[in-house]
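Final paragraph of the annual report: two paired records, presented back to back.
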Amino acid sequence: MLIAFDFQSDIPLYIQLRNQIVVGIAQGKLIPGEQLPTIRALAEESGVNMMTISKAYQLLKREGYIHTDRRSGTVVAPLQKNVVDQSTVDQLRLILSELRVGGLSEDDALALCGELYREGRHDV
């Protein structure tokens, strides 16, 4: 698993890891049942503190993207159908508002959303 951390970014490292795993799942690069590296292995490989990796994994587990088992380790969870939590909707609302304030028309915003959505699908 190739994770690229931006140590100059204002985005916390655990959020960067969380986001890359979610995008990897959406793009089909990480498939349900696939085993993820252990916290220790990923920390050593990336040079990031184990607690940071653990925090990302805990968040992903809470959000339902991964499952952890003492015997089988951490694996990608089965894909959820039609499950979007309110915080995701709120984030999307903010982003769409920023696009509108930035001068993007509704048609252009929808086209951009469609383009980005298709990038994340592996069945198209």
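The closing record of the year follows.
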Amino acid sequence: MHFVEDIVAKGVRERRFDIERQGRVVPGLLWTPPDAEGSRPLVLIGHGASGSKREDYVVALGRRLVRHLGYAAVAIDGPVHGDRRTKTGSAPDAPFFDFGQMWSSDMTMTDDHIGDWRATIDALQAESDIGVGAVGYWGLSMGTILGLPTVAAESRISVAVLGLMGLTGPTKARIATDAATISCPVLFLMQWDDELFPRDKVFDLFGALGSSDKRLHAHPGRHGDVPLEEFEASERFLALHLGA
């Protein structure tokens, strides 16, 4: 793990890092209390398609988990997003379409991203000033497409917030199989008028989750209209299961 930027502002320390894994770089952001000592819960934050680790809601969630709960939080760029992009001068929606193409054609993408998250947890556990304790996951839309299989595969993750996704798409069979193996508590968020994922497919995915503790929160509005109160609910749910 190589830290390339270190900033403290408004009670939160933000560090930009790179991890080298299998010949490629995993770029990420880490948020911790400025004077962090000892063990603390860690929340992995997965961003949506066309976003990045620096998406406003990702940064805001990471900072609030530090300020309100004293947790550590980390986000990494997804495939063909953020600092992983090799194309320059692309249109703003290019990562969205590039991801859709990769989702359809690259069957190694999901397992590669799981490996990237595992390498991130391993690297943070090796940093003496971070002290990783219990681990949670938060990710919507693309953050669920790639995050749900991560939660299923990574035994260190003990609670998850997922959503804005249905049982559909190129990897729906994989996602259905992985969903059935998830046993940790899950908060699932949906938008009632989601234009990307039909309501019945969202219900199918929620029903496929194997956890005995799963909760569905639904709000009116389109795919990107998740209200602030659901970020507050996410914080409470993570705190309930990750502790102090």
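The chain has one domain: 2-242. This concludes the annual technical report; the extension proposal builds directly on these records.
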